[in-house]
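Supplementary Note 3. Input sequence used for the single-chain structure prediction.
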Amino acid sequence: MANLSHETDRALSDGKRLVRDNRTGGRHRLEPSIGKGSANAKLKNLLKRAGYFGVAVLGIFIAISVAGAVLGGIGFWGIVAAFFAVVGAGILFSQFPKVKVPKRTELAKGDPKQMVARTELWLEAQRPALPPPAVKIVDQLGVQLDSLGLQLETVDANHPSVREVRELVGEYIPETIDNYRKVPEQMRGEAHAGKTADQRLTDSLGKLSGEVDRVTRRLAEGALDDLAIKDRYLEYRYGGDELLEDMNASNGKQG
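The predicted structure, written as discrete structure tokens, is reproduced below.
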């Protein structure tokens, strides 16, 4: 009986530890999101998991209630079984459904928000295979893609810049990383034609990051021009009146 109690205590302890580990992303904590798009996609997935877990727990309690009513109580082992059922549901729905990593062919599809979220999720999935300098640029690209997505929301879908962005995001960035990943890992640090694969990847991603920034700034020029025009109008409309009043008051004092 003592051994049975010991085994039960150990099982309960293991269950609590598993729940705690999964709440923090497992034994290895999840990498932070590189941008708001991927973070929002992960949040939606987390809320879906929480919803499934809530439904599972409700189902377990309903089953316990029915069993208790039929059997006149569930006893100690019924409570233990219910506890492990809840723990099992927690473990299951802390891992599933997983956030779907989009395929390369899907990156440039959808509206700007969807395109940005897909690309950020795809880039995050590539980070473990990239050298540290390239990872830093990927993290920077996440922030840039968020800004670019905001600009694209106000641009017509047929605008040339939108097609340029879809080409940049859907072809050039993933193609560069895919080409790098085709190089065997043990050869990525070897110089070839003057540079290593790691260096070429970092240089290429740096150029692509600069291009994303350039397109974003170009799209933002219209908003900056509108803001400047509005500022000049307000200065003329209100600041100018104040200046005229000050001049009239000064002339009145002199008179």
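The chain has two domains: 2-95, 104-245. Residues 197-254 form the longest helix (58 residues).
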